[in-house]
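dumping these here so i dont lose them again. two proteins, back to back, each one seq then structure tokens. dont judge the mess
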Amino acid sequence: MKIEAILAFLGSAAVCLLIVLTQKWHGRFSMDSAQGVQKFHCTPTPRIGGLGIVCGMLLGLAVLMANPNKSNDLGILKIIMIAGIPAFAFGLLEDLTKRVSVRARLLATIGSGLLAWAISGISLTSIQVVGIDALLSVKVISVLFTAFAIGGVANAINIIDGFNGLAAGVVMIMMLAFGGVALQVGDTGLAAACVAVMSGVAGFFLINWPKGKIFLGDGGSYFLGFAVAWIAVLLPERNPSVSPWASLLICAYPIIEVGFSFYRKTVREGYHPSQPDGVHFHMLINRRWTKKLFPNLEPCLQNAMTSPLLWLYTAVLGGLAVVFYQHQGALIVFLLLGIGLYLLTYRKLSRFRWWA
């Protein structure tokens, strides 16, 4: 998959650049304010970068559809583009109106998961856990479990979308890991879909990092979250030799972030999980480490230099999944180590000590 990936990259970059250059015309609708507890950018910035990614991927899809020899590469990408419409549309509507609730966006992403199942007939049938697998053998439970899992992963990508290049870089690393496993088991169709998503994100990334000229927005983050989650479902379902825990390890960072954030807000601090705050993992890394490591950089570049630290975390876990994709026990151990590292580091950043 060469020309399709190149066109997806170029199309995404071109649309994102066009959005930046024309922001004075659409800015009153598309701009993200620099004010707020979760705002770390320096100036108001267009937050509709997801539009560029979708346009780039549609261009790649059009090329595939025009080539009858690429039918194996076409099906997965077509489902991602069609089933991803609710997630993208509700997110983009929030980007433009600022009036779409978190619940509505989450339900739309769950709807994307249901639509993907309706088109493909695929849902999670095993996570290699006794008892749960028995429940997943019941079709309705399998479908609902898959849809809610997709909604959770999509929300996780949205949560980590806080610094220049962070979510985009994490998604590209995850697509590289998924594609690496897919190639090892001979699933070229899935690998091609990973390349298509990665290429579309790379076009956006070119404009987004390091200066933050454009943001993913909710449309981009929810759409990419859906794409990541659907590929995570497909990898073990299409390839029984791949443990579902490999998909979980590849997606570990955003999943750990959303899980711990839910616990921290609801159990430890006693407020609604959708309420924004300024103590997410990436925010603390920016305050405690990035500003000390790069004290002479302007704030915009300090923002950007927070992301590589978390790219590294994602890459290590993803790399382990690529190597040990068949070994459930090793994958579980690595996941537990990843969770432990996250929790210890969070404690160090928030309480200035590694443990109690």
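---- next one ----
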Amino acid sequence: MNAPLAGWTVAVPESRQLDVLAGLLSRRGAALHRCPLVGIVDAPDEAPIIAWWEWLVHQPPAYLIFLTGEGVTRLRGFAHSAGISDETLRDALSRTEIVSRGPKPARALRELDLQPTHYATTPTTDGVIETLRSLPLANQSVAVQLYGDDPNVPLMRFLNTSAAIVAPVSPYRYARDVSDAAIVTLIDELADGAIDAIVFTSMAQVKRLIAVADSEDRAAALASGLSRTVVAAVGPVVADLLRENGIAVDVMPASRYFMKPLVSALVAYRQSSEVVSLEARRQA
């Protein structure tokens, strides 16, 4: 079909690349419910980030862990604002072994003509830890790019127990992109069966949706609505968080955890002869 998602209304919580994801879905015939749940902003205090860069440039660590492509891009922006050139960054980063959680940091690094030395066995924190187990970390300096307000306790605990000398940095934060009232409207539409599918592209989206549902006494409505809606996750990190909160995941790309593969997986799901009709799910 030229419009394989025709007849479906898809909720889009994406913020930063909302138009990109919306375009991919609308070109396949979907009607859209745009509800950007979170935005991304630079960390409010640049001083520790610039100090981190100056340390790294003058004394490259043994290992540098990048968890997100956004982190690579934001850190590069902070470096530029401090007068550190791409050439200087390239030289410093080429002298450290880079560990990438997944393909997005690698894609951002390609803009500096760099590539990771190691990839996580799976694009998750557990995958990063599994990869790090094979590396000699004791008494070695390890720089870690964190994000949001998440200290990534499992990763930091592993590094500390491995006797690594850890230097974390968190270059961006999540911020509200729409009002709580708009999210309540989305929850009510999910509960009413007005949304056929919802596509999650970050953990922050899931966390805010659940937080608003809890604070506005809509937790039961959200659980009911999502149980009768096709839930799509961009990758295993998001999928795991959804499942941890009792939300079944119907769609996830088999590999290449980006927006286009996510939309392709959603199309394949709808076209599958094994898909349970939404009406049947809503009547269950």
